[in-house]
């Protein structure tokens, strides 16, 4: 089993070991663990149940990280972004007055649009239309 995992994740190619990857995983978890407690606090401001948000946060982070590991074969932890969650709770549902259900509907719609734009190739065409001097400028800032 150890050989299969080491082979699948290309430990030798990447000059790493089980010990290094374990320490990296623990370090990443500890670094990201604050979201387990902060995200429910933020989303509660929009009217969402803290316990449900905590569970959803954990499941989303676990699923995203596993997909990144198994599908992309990349050692990245994925979790909900606190900035966009704060925008959702304090601006969309707070200042603008939408309910959290309406806000999640908008998030779903934007996700569908993003997938359609990406799958149809429109995203690549939009990016290719950005002048090179703007691409270089934004990369150096």
Write a structural description:
This protein has 141 residues and is an all-alpha fold. Helices cover 74% and strands 0% of the residues. The mean pLDDT is 90.
Q: Major beta sheet, specifics?
A: none
Query: What integer value in Å does the Rg equal?
Result: 19 Å
What's the total helix number?
A: 8
Number of strands: 0
Order of helices and strands: HHHHHHHH
The overall pLDDT, averaged over residues, is 90
**DSSP strand (E) fraction?**
under 5%
N-to-C CA distance: 46 Å
Helix content: over 70%
Helical/strand content category: mainly alpha
Regions with little confidence, pLDDT below 50 for 5+ residues: none
Shape: globular
Question: Helix and strand layout, with pairings?
Answer:
Elements: H1 2-8, H2 18-32, H3 34-44, H4 50-70, H5 82-95, H6 100-119, H7 122-129, H8 132-140
Features:
single chain; 141 residues; mainly alpha; globular
Would you kindly provide a brief summary of this structure?
With 141 residues, the protein is mostly helical. The chain has helices spanning 2-8, 18-32, 34-44, 50-70, 82-95, 100-119, 122-129, 132-140. It contains eight helices and no strands.
